[in-house]
Design goal:
Blueprint (H helix, E strand, L loop, with lengths): L3 H13 L5 E4 L5 H10 L4 E4 L3 H8 L12 H7 L3 E4 L10 E4 L14 H13 L5 E4 L7 H11 L10 E4 L18 E5 L2 H14 L3 E4 L2 H32 L3 H8 L23 H11 L5 H24 L8 E5 L14 H11 L3 E5 L29
Parallel strand pairs: 1-2, 1-4, 2-3, 4-5, 5-6, 7-8, 9-10
Antiparallel strand pairs: 6-7
Helix pairs in contact: 1-7, 5-6, 8-10, 8-11, 11-12
Bound molecules: nicotinamide-adenine-dinucleotide.
Nicotinamide-adenine-dinucleotide binds next to helix 5.
Length: 396
């Protein structure tokens, strides 16, 4: 086996020369934009996914993600430096593998790292000396070293010696027109100097700023701290909205006025709750990990619970507006996605409100141009096939 330093310097050289073959494992909202950004930086890229239909669609140049420019994927495929694949044996040909698989909540509100474990097992089966493996999926502090590393090392190769291992949290904000994968600074953490330097130099070639931190656990904690900050502030503003309403004060006017303070205040806006696979999930991962370590995050846990309860407030307001009883009423929900202009309904508060409204006896329908028909999803398979109602005078 080649010595660790030459494995490091070979890969460093290949990254600097843009010759390193980069893989993303997972081609979802995170893995696909990342793969395209790495391609745009000049690297040859293969995006791997177990979803063969998605792989075929990407190789056919289909748009796949609605906010992409129509030719975003077709243009990358046409360069010959970007392709999708479901053939995991090809992972052995890659120099760096960036893992972007889902890390959802289990049914019991516990972290579910099964996709990360499976991805690790797949990589371990094809791992070769000199490869850089980076986990991008949101996990708790200690998961790269404690969960992924042993799976990879079951191959007989050792992290930091035979292969390199880092964690770099994804900060993708789907649909954000101001910030893209390339312009959002990237945190990079590793538990040995060679892994850190390789991951740093790869991301520095792809994004405008790579920010190194001292360990994988620190990088993991950064992501959860960012998302928990948002969770707490969203819960705070929603709590204020409910309290100010009782006092006859308009929370929107309060926030707009408060936001004129040039320091010490950042506006967050009230809403029907939080959704997506990120903000609702991270605080749960963080609080769970803190408990395992003998710590506690009661503020974060309260905020997460309060956000989960917001759809119930929405349903209660609808019932109030309907005269106190929703039995036999028809309710139209405008927007079913978890945020505007996106075809993603994961953990959407609109779906939670829909269920509560129906449980109260109403017939709930929705209008959302991004969901002409509800697909079969992990969390809401029973809603598959429902259709968006056109906003005609008759329907409204
Ligand atoms: N969506 C976001 O806005 C966002 C932002 C920041 C971080 N994240 C985090 O990034 C990670 C990925 O999220 P996402 O939104 O891209 O998920 P996603 O569901 O959109 O995509 C995940 C993809 O991984 C594929 N996949 C699952 N298991 C696999 C395996 N073993 N091997 C290969 N492919 C596999 C799936 O088929 C899917 O296409 C999660 O940890 C999430 O919390 C998401």
């Amino acid at each position: 086996m080649t010595n660790p330093f030459s494995l490091f310097s070979d890969l460093k050289h290949r990254i600097e020369a843009r010759e390193a073959r980069i893989a993303t494992l997972g081609l979802g909202y995170v893995g696909l934009p990342l793969a395209l950004s790495v391609h745009d930086a000049g690297f040859p890229v293969t995006g791997f996914d177990i979803n063969e239909a998605r792989v075929e669609a990407i190789n056919a140049g289909e748009r796949v993600i609605s906010y992409f420019a129509p030719d975003r994927i077709a243009g990358a495929v046409a360069t010959g430096r970007f392709a999708a694949s479901a053939e995991m044996a090809e992972l052995a040909e890659m120099d760096a593998i960036l893992i972007c698989v889902p890390t959802p909540l289990g049914g019991d509100l516990q972290p579910d790292l099964s996709a990360v474990r499976r991805a690790g097992e797949t990589i371990a089966a094809h791992l070769r000396p000199g490869q850089l493996i980076v986990l991008e999926s949101t996990v708790w502090p200690g998961a790269t070293a404690g969960v992924l590393r042993p799976i990879l090392e079951a191959s007989g190769l050792k992290a930091g010696t035979h292969f390199f291992l880092a964690f770099s949290p994804e900060r993708e904000d789907p649909g954000n027109e101001s910030w893209s994968t390339r312009t959002i600074p990237k945190i990079v953490g590793a538990d040995d100097a060679h892994s850190l330097e390789l991951a740093r130099s790869l991301y520095a070639a792809v994004v405008t700023q790579a920010v190194p931190v001292s360990s994988t656990a620190t990088a993991e904690a950064v992501k959860l701290a960012e998302n928990s900050f948002r969770t707490v502030n969203i819960a705070l503003v929603n709590e204020m909205k409910l309290a100010f309403a009782k006092m006859g004060v308009d929370v929107w006017e309060v926030i707009e006025a408060a936001a004129t303070k040039p320091f010490g205040y950042m506006p967050f806006w009230p809403g029907p709750g939080i959704g997506g696979d990120c903000i609702p999930v991270s605080p749960v991962y963080l609080a769970w990990a803190a408990r395992q370590a003998g710590g506690a995050l009661p503020l974060v846990e309260t905020a997460a619970r309060q956000n989960r309860e917001m759809p119930a407030h929405v349903a209660a307001r609808v019932a109030e507006a309907a005269g106190g009883d929703l039995q036999g009423k028809r309710v139209l929900i405008l927007g079913i996605a978890y945020k505007r202009d996106i075809e993603d309904s994961r953990l959407s508060p609109a779906l939670a409100a829909l269920r509560l409204i129906e449980a109260a006896g109403a017939r709930a329908e929705y209008h959302d141009p991004f969901f002409p028909e509800m697909p079969r999803t992990r969390d809401d398979p029973d809603l598959a096939g429902r259709r968006s109602v056109a906003l005609t005078a008759e329907a409204v």
